[in-house]
Each structure stands twice: as C-alpha cells, then as structure tokens.
Amino acid sequence: MHVLFLAPEVWPFKRVGGLAEVAYDLPRALAALGHKVGVVTPKPRLSQEMEQGLERLDTVLEVPVSWKRHLAEVYRHQEPSGVEVYLIGHEHLFDREGLYGNAYGDYEDNAERFIFYSRACLELARTMDWRVDVFHANDWTTGLVPVYLRTLYAGDPCLKDAASLMTVHNLGNQGQFWHYDMPLTGLGWEYFVPEALEFYGQINFLKGGLVFADMISTVSHTYAQEILTPELGRGMEGVLMARRDRLAAVVNGIDYQVWNPADDYRLAANYDRHDPSPKARCRQELMGHYGLEDGGGRPLVAVVGRLEDRKGLDLITAGMERFFEVGLNLVVMGYGEDHYHVALGELAARHPGRLGLTIGFDIDLAHRIMAGVDMLLVPSRYEPCGIHQMQALRYGVVPVVRDTGGLADTVVDQRPGVEGTGFKFEPFTMEAMLQTLDRAKQAYDRPQEWRGLMQRAMAQDFSWQAVAPRYEEIYRKALELAGQRQRA
C-alpha cells in the first residue's frame, strides 16, 4: 500500500508531545513491512544544521484558502528506512516559535494555518501524481483531510479512490473555531450543520474527521471505551457511538532500537533483564547530576513529560511534602503550564537533595532518567495511551500509574496472587496516589520481589514491530469501506 501519514509534529523536526515519536516510528515500522510510506508535516523553524539536511524540491504548491492561493515550498528528507518526509514550507504561517501558540496563548490564525496544512497535504499528492491508498490523519490539525477527500477532491483522478483513517491521540483537543472562519475552508455552508462540522455554533475540525473518515482509531483499548462516555467523550461521544462499528484501537509502541538499555550509549552502564544490576551505576550517576542525597536507599521516583493538569501535576505539587515523608526522592523533567514551573522551582529550592528539577525536555537526559530511577509516576486524569510508561518498563523502571486509558492497558498491577509489572490506583485523589506509592515502596524494600518486578517489566513487548500489522488490517478495512462508498 501507499500510505501518506499526516502529522503536525514529527521527530526530530518538531516535538510538542508523543505524536512526534509516533509520526517517526510508525511509518518506519510500516515501511519495514514493504509499504510505501510518506510523511507530510508543516516545516517549522529549524536549526541551520537541520536545514542543511533537507532537499528543496522544484515543486511549488498553490494551496487555496478562501479566496487566496498560498504558495508553498516543498522540502524532502529521505530516511534510511525508505520513508520520505515532506515538509511544507510557508514562512508566514509556520516559521514561528511554537507550533500551536506562544506564551500568550494559541495563535489567532490557527484555523487558517491548519486549513492550509490540510489542503497542502492533498495538493502535494495531486502535484506529485501519487496514487495514495490511505491518508492517515492524526488529531484535529488534519481533521479536514477526510472531509476534503469526500467533498472538494472527490472527483480528482489521483484521490478519488483513496481511503482515510482518522486517529485520535487526544480527544481533549478538537480544533474549534468561530463560524466566521467557515469560508476559509472552501466548503459551502451546507457543511456547517450538526451532521458535519458544526459543534455548538462553532466549526470543529476533529468532528469533521470523525464524521467523514472511512475508519477511526485511537491509541488504547481502554481509551476507545472511555471516549464513548460523557465523562471523557468531550461532546464527541454521540458521534463516536454512531460510528463505533468503524472505531478501532491500537496501543502505541516504542522503538526498541532507540530505547534499549543493553546498548544505550547515553548511559553510565548498560544492562538487560537477565542482569539488571548495572542499573545501580546509572542511578548513582543521575543522583550526582541532580545533587540528590541517597538517604539510606530511598527509592528514586521520576515524573517526565507535560507539566499540566491533565497529567495530574496538581496532585503531585500539592502532595510533594508528603512524598518526602513517605521516604522518596524525586526527579521531574518537563514543561507545560507556567504555574507548575514556579511551584516546582519553589519546592526544589526548599528541598535541596530531595528534588531534582529540569524545566524543558532533553532527549539524552530522558534516557539517563529512565536508566537511573526506580519508579515512574504517572497520575493522569486521563491518558489516551502514554509513551513514558512503556519506556520505563523497558528500562526496568516500575510504573506507578492511574488506572485509565493506555496506562490501564500497558501496566499490570502487582498485588497478592498477581505478578505485575507496576502499581495502579483508580480514584483521582492524592490519598490514592500516596497509598499506591507507599505500596510500591514496600515492594522496593523486598529486593527479591522488586527484582522480579523489574525483570517482568523489561520482558514486555511494546515494539512498533508488534503494532504495525494491526494498522495494516485497519488500512485494508478502510480501503474496503472506501470501495463500497465509491460503488454506492
């Protein structure tokens, strides 16, 4: 199959969250199965070194947005895997500090920016004369692509037989804009109705994708059930219930060539599940990096990722003093909401030797943290999939997670009669979190039990090689449904 994978962020060009890794890893796994895979992404502001690694094509796209026609440059990066990454260059719309916004909030022209990007993906396929089998759209920024395939581009010889898959990585972000932006889409007002793009008087890009896509997928089995409920459906539960026969679930994977403690060059020592003992050297190195006190063998707990309410940072910051009473040291690395940056900075200043803090994301340090800590804490309000807990498992780090979404699907709770890979709690409360951390600490104090936990964690297989065949099945189903639609 010829698959075009559409994502606004792709590692290493731009990273806001886990989608960037998915957009890098999944296409490579699909290419390894023999498919022709291209990735299309907006060209962000890049370093000079990254610019030099791009090939500028002679192709210039004319992308309609309302009455205007934007001219866009096309750049290509050839991966050794055979995947071709196409970056759509538009200085005015995408050469900016942030992808979605800056310190003052979302960009006011986001509707125009991502209408342009969605149409540019289709214009690229037309201009290059590709016969794409499946357009794999990801999240709201590409939600209009399935809409356009069924409307403005339905009669195009290159695109008329193409199928679409709409993958929801986070239903919390839907791309809602005021109705006066409707002319920018190029679609008639007949599509501003509840059966199409209209959502409580606004345009909803993701809703368009959910309504018009041939298949819909999300990134864990539990989350696929959760989004059918009013609690986590975010107003889309009715749309999803109506199309649940087309809703599939695939747990994300991680790249075990990149995330492998046995040959990770960033680590103070390499180790595997058969002999995890060298991990102690990685722990010592990390504690030295942050100036942490061992304190008689306190467990070292990491919090990695977005510092925001959804990730349960309110529980963490409010309960920090009690973390130390339980007998834990912490390492926090991430960025997000400013008030958490301030709160964590104040806590680190009050507790030197107990809390190590990095505001920002450093991929090399992320590897060293996973190798050096004992536990990973992920108390998310909701978590469509989550990647960090799978990375932790691979590095023999025991996850302590809330029992929701992909966390529920990837971590087995350690309890009497069940040999688990981590610890889970269900109520979103500080007490439940602290009780579960205490339960994990008790296991940590029993070395034989803890070693078994580590080794079972490291034996799990969440590789993209295990995941990619499931996407093959979904693509085939999408093509079958698209064919039925064409014949109807």
TrEMBL record:
UniProt key word Transferase: yes
Entries under CDD domains matching the protein: GT5_Glycogen_synthase_DULL1-like (cd03791)
Domain of life of the source: Bacteria
Name used for this protein in its record: Glycogen synthase
Reactions catalysed according to its record: [(1->4)-alpha-D-glucosyl](n) + ADP-alpha-D-glucose = [(1->4)-alpha-D-glucosyl](n+1) + ADP + H(+)
Short name of one Pfam family: Glyco_transf_5
Annotated family: Belongs to the glycosyltransferase 1 family. Bacterial/plant glycogen synthase subfamily.
Metabolic or biological pathway, per its Swiss-Prot or TrEMBL entry: Glycan biosynthesis; glycogen biosynthesis
GO molecular function annotation: alpha-1,4-glucan glucosyltransferase (ADP-glucose donor) activity; alpha-1,4-glucan glucosyltransferase (UDP-glucose donor) activity
Species: Desulfoferula mesophila
Role description: Synthesizes alpha-1,4-glucan chains using ADP-glucose.
EC number: 2.4.1.21
Record GO biological process: glycogen biosynthetic process
Gene Ontology cellular component terms for the protein in this record: cytosol
Enzyme class of the recorded protein, top EC level: transferase
HAMAP family in alphabetical order: Glycogen_synth
This protein's UniProt keywords: Glycogen biosynthesis, Glycosyltransferase, Transferase
Location of the Starch synthase catalytic domain: 2-240
Domain named Glycosyl transferase family: residues: 297-449
Gene3D superfamilies: Glycogen Phosphorylase B
